[in-house]
């Protein structure tokens, strides 16, 4: 912090920095309470087979409404959770709640549904927590087979510790869990490294998808990611599909799966279940 008494500007800078630090600390305290009291929620966004429209998975997305009734976006509270270490209990809660919901849907349908649950795992949790045994215990607690779960990881999670990540992913694969690389195209995209990891799916970041047409550069990037995925034997999911035209173009380019507001926004567990068992699915 600069401590100049000379100009008002410098003092205003100090005050703003201090305000930001206070606001962040207040958010951390409120988030800690919310995690402890299990006051977060999960919403579920469907992932569709682009060729048939069938729902193949739901992505579980955390939601937080604070004590004043304000909704805070994951983009804001996940980073606070990561910096404070709260991401570990938060991530454990998300995993448990998402699998509990999937097991409840199966029970309601009277048989295991042909659908996966996709759960985001923070790089911090991957480094600090023992994720494979945690996942195995949580699956067992809800009576679910490993292949019902897909974990979404970002590249940064893996690049931070290549050997450790390879080992972690192998252990998860051995339990039948599938692995998706999230937000692909925004990170380092270290291809040699990617090939060494047991990744099943590439998720194309929505920054290349949403405004894809008529942006020739974005289309070129999407094409490149799709051919890379095919060469490596991976499936592809496009996120951020907001129109039928984008969905059709992606499908024509060979993208297998997609999610986005064109299909559905993230839904409550009840809405998601109704969509899943609707005759049109
Ligand atoms: P993500 O994993 O890439 O999730 C996709 C995000 O795109 C979600 O934002 C979703 O609501 C949004 N989205 C989906 N379709 C569309 C669309 O058509 N248009 C637009 N504009 N947006 C769309 P959300 O829920 O705000 O989450 C943001 C990010 O926060 C996630 O990005 C993920 O990185 C993180 N996050 C959310 N929940 C969790 C969680 O439980 N654990 C961890 N570690 N991270 C989470
Ligand atoms: Mg994700
Ligand atoms: Mg994503
Ligand atoms: Mg994203």
TrEMBL record:
Put simply, this protein is called Cyclic di-GMP phosphodiesterase Gmr
Q: Which organism is it from?
A: Sphingomonas mucosissima
**Is the keyword Hydrolase assigned to this protein?**
yes
- Stated EC number for the protein is 3.1.4.52
| Record keywords | Hydrolase
Highest classification ranks of the organism: Bacteria, Pseudomonadati, Pseudomonadota, Alphaproteobacteria, Sphingomonadales
What general EC class does the enzyme of this chain belong to? hydrolase
Q: Which residues of the full protein are shown?
A: 281 to 561 of 561
- Keyword Nucleotide-binding part of the UniProt annotation: no
Highest rank taxon of the organism: Bacteria
User: What's one GO MF term for it?
Assistant: cyclic-guanylate-specific phosphodiesterase activity
Where the record annotates domain EAL, the positions are: 24-280
């Amino acid at each position: 912090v600069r401590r100049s008494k000379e100009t008002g500007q410098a003092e205003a800078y100090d005050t703003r920095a201090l305000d930001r630090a206070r606001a962040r600390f207040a958010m951390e305290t409120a988030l800690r309470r919310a995690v402890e009291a299990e006051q977060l929620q999960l919403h579920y966004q469907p992932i569709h087979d682009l060729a048939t429209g069938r729902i193949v998975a739901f992505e579980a997305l955390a939601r937080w409404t604070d004590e004043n009734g304000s909704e805070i976006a994951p983009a804001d509270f996940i980073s606070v959770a990561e910096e404070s270490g709260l991401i570990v209990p938060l991530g454990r809660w998300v995993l448990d709640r998402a699998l509990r919901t999937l097991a409840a849907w199966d029970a309601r349908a009277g048989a295991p549904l042909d659908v996966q649950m996709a759960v985001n795992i923070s790089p911090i949790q991957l480094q600090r927590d023992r994720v494979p045994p945690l996942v195995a215990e949580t699956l067992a607690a809800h009576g679910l087979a490993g292949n019902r779960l897909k974990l979404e990881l970002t590249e940064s999670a893996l690049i931070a510790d290549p050997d450790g990540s390879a080992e972690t992913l192998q252990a998860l694969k051995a339990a039948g869990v599938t692995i998706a690389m999230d937000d692909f195209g925004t990170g380092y995209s270290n291809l040699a490294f990617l090939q060494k990891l047991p990744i099943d799916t590439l998720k194309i970041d929505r920054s290349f998808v949403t405004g894809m047409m008529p942006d020739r550069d974005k289309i070129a990037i999407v094409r490149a990611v799709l051919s890379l995925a095919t060469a490596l034997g991976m499936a592809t999911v496009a996120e951020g599909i907001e129109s039928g035209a984008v969905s059709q173009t992606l499908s024509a380019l060979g993208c297998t799966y997609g999610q986005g507001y064109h299909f559905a926004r993230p839904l409550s567990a009840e809405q998601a279940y109704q969509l899943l068992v609707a005759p049109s699915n």
